[in-house]
Amino acid sequence: MSCWTWNQIVYGGSVGVRVEERLFTTAAAIDGPLCLRRFLNDSHAEKIMDLPLNHPDFFHVSELFSLKDLFNARVHLGHKRGCRHRLMEPYLYGCRLEQDIIDLEQTVEHLQLALNFTAHVAYRGGIILFISRRRQFGHLVECTAKECGEYAHARYWQGGLFTNADTQYSPGVRLPDLIIFLSTLNNVFQQHIGIRDAAKMNIPTVGVVDTNCNPSLLTYPVPGNDDTPVAMELYCRLFKMTINRAKDRRRQMELLHGVGASPTLSS
Fold first, then answer.
1. CA–CA separation, 260 vs 42, rounded Å?
2. 104 forms bridges with which residues in the sheet?
3. What residues of the chain score a pLDDT lower than 70?
4. Do 208 and 233 meet the contact criterion of CB atoms below 8 Å apart?
5. Which end of the chain is more exposed for a tag (fewer CB within 10 A), N or C?
6. Which is it for strands 99-102 and 3-4: parallel, antiparallel or unpaired?
7. What domains appear along the chain, each with residue ranges and CATH number?
8. What are phi and psi of 263, to 5 degrees?
9. pLDDT for the residue numbered 187
10. Residue 24 is inside which H or E element, if any?
């Protein structure tokens, strides 16, 4: 039986960035916590998996940033009033000189929720995919994914990568466990097709939504500026720190409870 990597199947080996190879078979595309439960089957593994769920901020993501950090990164600056999407009105603080101002108190709350969910996915061995269609931020997004051991797609999005994966590649393809959209619009200011495809496939999504974006299909929308380089650098740094912190905590818990690394199925 052949063994595939995420890069070979989802990106066809030509599009996207391979950060690390996670091998799996078409018969059993299982990695991470499911392997722990199936092969170890002891109370220590269960404790490692369930302990973070009993704490509202197990990974202390609220300590990673403050409202002042968001303000200094210009996260509060939205687009002109004429570009405003009606579903973004609840996230606005006001409008000054025809420019929408985002309510940073709501941004803090939503960003903490998004980071906390991301940490839980990383802790449980999930596959996280960073997506951005903005050409000027492509290198930043790819470097962020590489530095935290995850995956990135910063180029043209081919329709059907999620919804038609079995036909395009082979049955048993494992889709991402979480998708982080650092920009929900493409280069012509239309909603990224991956958001719609992820919603169809019930894949959780985190997305930075500016005042001209539609947040309705995102699981965890984060209202904020998605055009300024300093703001994008802040988002990338926070997600990278969160993922690395969760993975480090997982390794610490495994050592503490005497549980080895998760086995990987192979043929």
1. 12
2. none
3. 1-45, 47, 258-267
4. no
5. N
6. unpaired
7. 42-256 (3.40.50.10490)
8. -70, 155
9. 76
10. strand 24-25
pLDDT at 44: 64
Per-residue pLDDT, 39: 45
Task: Count CA atoms within 13 Å of residue 202 on its CB side.
Answer: 0
The contacts of residue 88 (CB under 8 Å, 6+ apart) are 78, 100, 209, 210, 211, 212, 213, 215, 223
Q: Are 133 and 157 in contact (CB under 8 A)?
A: yes
SS (H, E, C) 188-216: CCCECHHHHHHHHCCCCEEEEECCCCCCC
Planar angle of CA 251, 176, 33, nearest 5 degrees = 35
Q: Which two tokens stand for residue 14?
A: 């030509």
Q: What's the alpha-carbon Rg for the chain, to the nearest Å?
A: 19
Per-residue confidence (pLDDT) for residue 173, from 0 to 100 = 83
Contact (CB, 8 A) for 259 and 251: no
